[in-house]
């Protein structure tokens, strides 16, 4: 074991305070808030064309690729939990090795997606009931964006490592760079060059590769001590097995979560292009909620992970409670903001009258979502920090079953409203089930 610097030791040993939570969370909240803003700009730029087809194409293409990429979301989640625990235990060599392992996985995974893009896309569209026009435009979008897969996936690992190091300002810098670059190129390629849906794809391609390069530079201190060149450490069988177990369970959990979100979009598409476009616009509200709450969930990952590294159940409880307080308050503020300003935001995002009307009719679900989903998002952070990935996998399976029952019963009764209701049922089920298992997580912190 390699000891940390005195500054790192002092930071990891400090109690969790509101100031320390905000030090981690505020840059994450700001950076994550720009992600749905980017989605809104993507949607809004093609929305100016006055045709629901480009809106649906960007929406369905983006969610398919994002869903595929997020299969590798275990790199972000697993890296935070494992690195935070290594920080808490004072193992600086393992902290560096974890970043190297994450980057190797990202490179291999991204290359695999590029090679397998045609069967992956064919399978995705086989499940999609979207119109032929939407599918053709979405396929062109995806065939451009997939070439930045290694960079996009590498960013997961690098941001997880920076979060665990409590260097979330670096995460903010990466996200701002990627999103501002993407937005500027969106405007240039779509409105300036009239490239349409393909212009949105090229903008994202350049943003993801340059973001990955910037992330490597911000993580450069991981390579300063020479631990990253220690092959015996990087490829240590016991550590690799532990990382594989954690990440495999997170991967399975993520796949089940993606089943929910992808099926949500496809189920909504069955009600026509107008409602598909309306659902895509409303999803931007949901993304705002998720990314804002993630700021405090990430704080929970760090503090619970460090507490596990120090084997302190009391510190686990303090970290979980204090970060969750901020998370629930943030969710309440967002729900009220959607109630007050949601209709005006919808009108800014599309000029199509039918899409506006359909989106307003379903806005109430967006008002409820932050209140219903806050517990699920915060418990995700707590469980990731504790690397309780087996529990996450099992409880997600039960939540998926609840979602399936809701889909089967509510959609025939409520149509597209039933699609949204089923999604919120899955949020509620996850929060309740993870709350039920939380006492075991706290007990196990003692080691």
**Average pLDDT for all residues:** 87
Query: What would you call the shape?
Result: globular
| CA-CA gap between termini | 18 Å
Computed over alpha carbons, the radius of gyration is 21 Å
Note the main sheet. none
Tally the helices: what do you get?
Answer: 18
Q: SSE order, as H and E? A: HHHHHHHHHHHHHHHHHH
Task: Name the structural class.
Answer: mainly alpha
Percentage of residues in helical conformation: over 70%
Q: Give the low-confidence spans.
A: 1-10
Classify the beta-strand content into a percent band.
Answer: under 5%
Write down the domain tally.
1
Summarize the structure.
By secondary structure, the protein is mainly α. It contains 18 helices and no strands.
Write the layout of secondary structure elements.
Layout: H1 6-13, H2 18-47, H3 52-70, H4 74-89, H5 92-115, H6 117-127, H7 132-145, H8 149-164, H9 168-192, H10 197-218, H11 231-234, H12 237-269, H13 273-310, H14 313-349, H15 353-361, H16 363-385, H17 389-414, H18 416-444
